[in-house]
Amino acid sequence: MDQLVYHAVATGNLGQVLELVAEKNSWSWTPHDEKVETQRLGDVVDLGKGHGPNETTLLHVCSAKSHVRTAKVLLDMLAGSTDAATRRRIVNRRECSKIGGYTPLHLACLSKCTTAADMAELLIQYGADPDVKDANCSFTALHLAVRSHAFEVARVLVRAGADLLARDKFGNNPAFWLKELYPDATTPIRYVFMSTRGALMSNLHRYKP
């Protein structure tokens, strides 16, 4: 991956991203070139896995920083240049296992940014699967959201149909971590499940052996 493009995405500099990709591929950013633009930028997003030791794509970079606007442009252009199956593959691609083996959605859960929930919602809209597990601990996005105190992200995931009972490699579901980390019943995240599916945590705990 071109390091300048990578840096521009990491800093959320959308204007520079578009300029660099245009320069890299020798085409201009004009309304008349819309078809070419989507094809070329789609290629750049897809090529992320093949560059760098961590197999990090531009979507991983956007998600880690929760640069929603930049991610939206990349995803829109990706949607215009690839079929649905390819888009899902890219959006759900995991990084190298030595750094966690996370998908972009996992990184949005860990980002600690105020726009993390918006980032998660955007990724889900474009095909991110909330139940994909990371490569090391088999954490789903919901496991990570609960463990990271990401209240609003957890709400987005539950509304999107995330599996409340998915087990990590330790045999624990998100409800277990919720009980372990937030024993106080008044903790806001304990009501994420109640407010979205009406699932009381006391009932979910019975699924933990």
Automatic annotation (TrEMBL):
Signal sequence span per UniProt? none
Tell whether Repeat is among the UniProt keywords: yes
User: Which domain of life does the protein's organism represent?
Assistant: Eukaryota
Provide the residue intervals of the ANK repeats.
100-135, 137-169
Q: Which UniProt keywords apply?
A: ANK repeat, Repeat
Output the InterPro entries linked to this UniProt entry.
Ank_repeat_dom-contain_49, Ankyrin_rpt, Ankyrin_rpt-contain_sf
Q: What is this protein called?
A: Ankyrin repeat domain-containing protein 1
Q: Which organism is it from?
A: Hondaea fermentalgiana
